[in-house]
Amino acid sequence: QVQLVESGGGLVQPGESRRLSCTASGSFFIINTMGWYRQAPGKQRELVATITIGGSTNYADSVKGRFTISRDNAKNTVYLQMNMLKPEDTAVYYCNADIKTTFLARVNNYWGQGTQVTVSS
Deepest of 50, 82, 100, 113, by most Cβ within 10 A of its Cβ? Predict the structure, then answer.
């Protein structure tokens, strides 16, 4: 059974930095695209950033220049380095991954349980 487990959330002040991590565990063949999404209170879940297995990245306009997504394929882990945090970045951040459990299996999409990031003075 595949699980995605996030860590690194918490309370930070505006302008500070924070790094989120998400590690995939269980039995699987390959992890394709990994990403981070977020959901603020009363709003829909939105894309923050994604990264392909080859390292190509995509960012939401609201975080470009402030957030950096990266991954360590050997550790099955994706990171989100968040700099210059703003109160509007406050949200639950969710890890997402497209995973094939075996060579012949279809790609399935998985979500982590989320980690709260609160930006407030």
Answer: 82
